[in-house]
Amino acid sequence: MKKLVLLFAVTVLTSVMSFAQMEEGHISFDIDVSSEEEGMEMAVMMFSGSTLDLYFADDKARTDMDMGTMMSISTIIDNSTGEILMLMGGMMGEKAIKTTSEEMNVEEEEEPEYKVELTKEKKTIAGYKCKKAIVTDEDGDEMEYWYTEDIKTNTPDSKSVLAQLPGQALEYSIDKNGMLMSFKASKVETTLSSADKKEKFSMAMPEGYEEMTFEEFSAMGGGM
To answer: Has residue 160 been placed in a domain?
Structure first.
Protein backbone atom coordinates (compact mmCIF):
# COMPACT_ATOMS: atom_id res chain seq x y z
CA MET A 1 0.00 0.00 0.00
CA LYS A 2 2.81 2.42 0.87
CA LYS A 3 4.46 1.81 -2.51
CA LEU A 4 1.16 2.44 -4.30
CA VAL A 5 0.67 5.75 -2.47
CA LEU A 6 4.18 6.93 -3.32
CA LEU A 7 3.81 5.78 -6.93
CA PHE A 8 0.70 7.92 -7.37
CA ALA A 9 2.37 10.87 -5.65
CA VAL A 10 5.36 10.80 -8.01
CA THR A 11 3.14 10.16 -11.05
CA VAL A 12 1.03 13.22 -10.26
CA LEU A 13 4.12 15.32 -9.58
CA THR A 14 5.64 14.29 -12.91
CA SER A 15 2.49 15.21 -14.82
CA VAL A 16 2.30 18.58 -13.08
CA MET A 17 5.94 19.37 -13.85
CA SER A 18 5.22 18.53 -17.48
CA PHE A 19 2.25 20.77 -18.17
CA ALA A 20 0.93 22.98 -15.45
CA GLN A 21 2.75 26.23 -16.15
CA MET A 22 0.13 29.00 -16.21
CA GLU A 23 1.53 32.49 -15.75
CA GLU A 24 -0.39 32.81 -12.48
CA GLY A 25 -3.33 31.07 -10.86
CA HIS A 26 -4.85 28.23 -8.86
CA ILE A 27 -6.68 25.13 -10.09
CA SER A 28 -8.54 22.78 -7.74
CA PHE A 29 -9.21 19.20 -8.88
CA ASP A 30 -11.57 16.62 -7.39
CA ILE A 31 -10.22 13.08 -7.75
CA ASP A 32 -12.39 10.02 -8.30
CA VAL A 33 -10.64 6.71 -7.56
CA SER A 34 -11.84 3.35 -8.88
CA SER A 35 -10.56 -0.13 -9.72
CA GLU A 36 -11.86 -3.26 -11.38
CA GLU A 37 -9.08 -5.37 -9.86
CA GLU A 38 -9.87 -7.87 -7.11
CA GLY A 39 -8.51 -6.99 -3.70
CA MET A 40 -8.36 -3.24 -4.39
CA GLU A 41 -11.56 -2.34 -2.51
CA MET A 42 -9.73 -1.20 0.62
CA ALA A 43 -7.29 0.96 -1.34
CA VAL A 44 -10.13 2.60 -3.27
CA MET A 45 -11.97 3.36 -0.03
CA MET A 46 -8.86 4.88 1.59
CA PHE A 47 -8.24 7.12 -1.44
CA SER A 48 -11.86 8.31 -1.40
CA GLY A 49 -12.21 12.09 -1.16
CA SER A 50 -8.76 12.84 -2.63
CA THR A 51 -8.13 16.34 -3.98
CA LEU A 52 -5.37 18.15 -5.86
CA ASP A 53 -4.62 21.89 -5.80
CA LEU A 54 -2.17 23.50 -8.23
CA TYR A 55 -0.71 26.99 -7.71
CA PHE A 56 1.42 28.96 -10.21
CA ALA A 57 3.15 32.32 -10.30
CA ASP A 58 6.14 33.51 -12.31
CA ASP A 59 8.62 30.59 -12.45
CA LYS A 60 7.21 28.79 -9.41
CA ALA A 61 4.60 26.07 -9.00
CA ARG A 62 3.08 24.19 -6.07
CA THR A 63 0.91 21.09 -5.77
CA ASP A 64 -1.07 20.13 -2.67
CA MET A 65 -2.41 16.59 -2.93
CA ASP A 66 -4.63 15.16 -0.20
CA MET A 67 -4.91 11.40 -0.72
CA GLY A 68 -7.98 10.61 1.37
CA THR A 69 -7.09 9.03 4.70
CA MET A 70 -3.67 7.89 3.44
CA MET A 71 -1.45 10.95 3.38
CA SER A 72 -0.93 14.47 2.05
CA ILE A 73 1.97 15.67 -0.05
CA SER A 74 2.92 19.20 -1.07
CA THR A 75 5.54 19.97 -3.70
CA ILE A 76 7.05 23.38 -4.42
CA ILE A 77 8.99 23.81 -7.66
CA ASP A 78 11.22 26.73 -8.62
CA ASN A 79 11.74 26.37 -12.36
CA SER A 80 14.30 29.19 -12.47
CA THR A 81 16.72 27.23 -10.23
CA GLY A 82 15.44 23.65 -10.62
CA GLU A 83 14.95 23.37 -6.84
CA ILE A 84 12.14 21.16 -5.49
CA LEU A 85 10.82 20.85 -1.93
CA MET A 86 8.47 17.95 -1.11
CA LEU A 87 6.54 17.85 2.18
CA MET A 88 4.71 14.69 3.24
CA GLY A 89 2.41 14.04 6.18
CA GLY A 90 0.34 11.06 7.27
CA MET A 91 1.04 7.39 7.74
CA MET A 92 4.83 7.83 7.48
CA GLY A 93 5.06 10.89 9.72
CA GLU A 94 6.15 14.33 8.55
CA LYS A 95 8.95 14.13 5.99
CA ALA A 96 10.69 16.79 3.90
CA ILE A 97 12.73 16.15 0.76
CA LYS A 98 14.90 18.80 -0.90
CA THR A 99 15.92 17.81 -4.40
CA THR A 100 16.25 19.15 -7.95
CA SER A 101 14.52 18.48 -11.26
CA GLU A 102 17.82 17.11 -12.54
CA GLU A 103 18.09 14.58 -9.71
CA MET A 104 14.52 13.41 -10.25
CA ASN A 105 15.28 12.67 -13.90
CA VAL A 106 18.59 10.86 -13.46
CA GLU A 107 17.27 7.74 -15.16
CA GLU A 108 15.31 9.45 -17.90
CA GLU A 109 13.42 6.97 -20.02
CA GLU A 110 12.64 7.30 -23.71
CA GLU A 111 9.35 9.10 -24.17
CA PRO A 112 6.55 6.88 -25.51
CA GLU A 113 4.87 7.88 -28.74
CA TYR A 114 1.27 9.12 -28.77
CA LYS A 115 -1.34 9.79 -31.39
CA VAL A 116 -3.55 12.77 -30.50
CA GLU A 117 -6.97 13.23 -32.09
CA LEU A 118 -8.63 16.60 -31.43
CA THR A 119 -12.41 16.15 -31.61
CA LYS A 120 -15.27 18.65 -31.92
CA GLU A 121 -16.98 17.34 -28.77
CA LYS A 122 -17.39 20.07 -26.15
CA LYS A 123 -18.48 20.54 -22.54
CA THR A 124 -18.05 23.10 -19.76
CA ILE A 125 -15.74 22.39 -16.80
CA ALA A 126 -15.34 24.86 -13.92
CA GLY A 127 -16.86 27.58 -16.08
CA TYR A 128 -14.49 27.00 -19.01
CA LYS A 129 -15.46 25.72 -22.46
CA CYS A 130 -13.48 22.54 -23.09
CA LYS A 131 -12.86 20.27 -26.05
CA LYS A 132 -12.11 16.55 -25.98
CA ALA A 133 -8.87 15.03 -27.19
CA ILE A 134 -8.43 11.28 -27.63
CA VAL A 135 -4.87 10.15 -27.01
CA THR A 136 -3.73 6.69 -28.16
CA ASP A 137 -0.46 5.32 -26.81
CA GLU A 138 1.92 2.94 -28.58
CA ASP A 139 0.09 -0.05 -27.06
CA GLY A 140 -3.22 1.06 -28.59
CA ASP A 141 -4.76 2.18 -25.27
CA GLU A 142 -6.97 5.27 -25.49
CA MET A 143 -7.23 8.09 -22.94
CA GLU A 144 -9.53 11.10 -22.86
CA TYR A 145 -8.38 14.62 -22.09
CA TRP A 146 -10.64 17.66 -21.85
CA TYR A 147 -8.77 20.92 -22.40
CA THR A 148 -9.59 24.61 -22.61
CA GLU A 149 -7.94 26.97 -25.08
CA ASP A 150 -8.79 29.87 -22.76
CA ILE A 151 -5.85 28.95 -20.51
CA LYS A 152 -2.53 28.69 -22.30
CA THR A 153 0.35 26.65 -20.97
CA ASN A 154 4.13 26.76 -21.16
CA THR A 155 5.34 23.18 -21.38
CA PRO A 156 9.05 22.42 -20.98
CA ASP A 157 8.59 18.76 -21.95
CA SER A 158 7.57 18.98 -25.61
CA LYS A 159 7.24 15.19 -25.90
CA SER A 160 4.65 14.73 -23.15
CA VAL A 161 0.99 14.03 -23.93
CA LEU A 162 -0.17 17.24 -22.32
CA ALA A 163 2.32 19.28 -24.33
CA GLN A 164 0.47 18.29 -27.50
CA LEU A 165 -2.83 19.75 -26.33
CA PRO A 166 -3.76 23.28 -27.49
CA GLY A 167 -4.56 24.38 -23.92
CA GLN A 168 -4.82 23.50 -20.25
CA ALA A 169 -6.26 20.05 -19.38
CA LEU A 170 -9.11 20.37 -16.87
CA GLU A 171 -10.16 16.72 -16.88
CA TYR A 172 -8.04 13.59 -17.42
CA SER A 173 -7.15 10.24 -15.86
CA ILE A 174 -4.07 8.37 -14.62
CA ASP A 175 -4.17 4.55 -14.66
CA LYS A 176 -1.47 2.85 -12.55
CA ASN A 177 -1.19 -0.63 -11.07
CA GLY A 178 -4.86 -1.47 -11.60
CA MET A 179 -6.17 1.77 -10.08
CA LEU A 180 -7.77 4.60 -12.04
CA MET A 181 -7.56 8.18 -10.73
CA SER A 182 -9.79 10.62 -12.61
CA PHE A 183 -9.07 14.34 -12.17
CA LYS A 184 -11.70 17.03 -12.81
CA ALA A 185 -11.24 20.74 -12.14
CA SER A 186 -13.78 22.22 -9.72
CA LYS A 187 -12.35 25.75 -9.46
CA VAL A 188 -10.01 27.90 -11.56
CA GLU A 189 -8.52 31.21 -10.43
CA THR A 190 -6.22 33.25 -12.68
CA THR A 191 -4.64 35.47 -9.99
CA LEU A 192 -2.97 34.98 -6.61
CA SER A 193 -2.60 37.45 -3.76
CA SER A 194 0.85 38.59 -2.61
CA ALA A 195 0.29 36.75 0.68
CA ASP A 196 -0.54 33.51 -1.14
CA LYS A 197 2.58 33.80 -3.30
CA LYS A 198 4.80 34.31 -0.25
CA GLU A 199 3.23 31.40 1.66
CA LYS A 200 2.71 28.88 -1.13
CA PHE A 201 6.13 29.17 -2.78
CA SER A 202 8.38 29.35 0.27
CA MET A 203 11.35 26.97 0.05
CA ALA A 204 12.05 27.25 3.79
CA MET A 205 12.19 23.94 5.66
CA PRO A 206 9.21 23.90 8.08
CA GLU A 207 9.69 23.01 11.73
CA GLY A 208 8.87 19.48 12.88
CA TYR A 209 9.70 17.76 9.58
CA GLU A 210 12.31 15.03 9.26
CA GLU A 211 14.59 15.81 6.32
CA MET A 212 15.50 12.99 3.94
CA THR A 213 17.21 12.69 0.57
CA PHE A 214 15.40 11.98 -2.69
CA GLU A 215 17.29 8.68 -2.86
CA GLU A 216 15.86 7.69 0.55
CA PHE A 217 12.38 8.77 -0.59
CA SER A 218 12.68 6.66 -3.76
CA ALA A 219 13.77 3.64 -1.70
CA MET A 220 10.58 3.95 0.36
CA GLY A 221 8.62 3.20 -2.79
CA GLY A 222 10.80 0.34 -3.92
CA GLY A 223 12.62 2.53 -6.42
CA MET A 224 9.35 3.44 -8.23
So the answer is: no
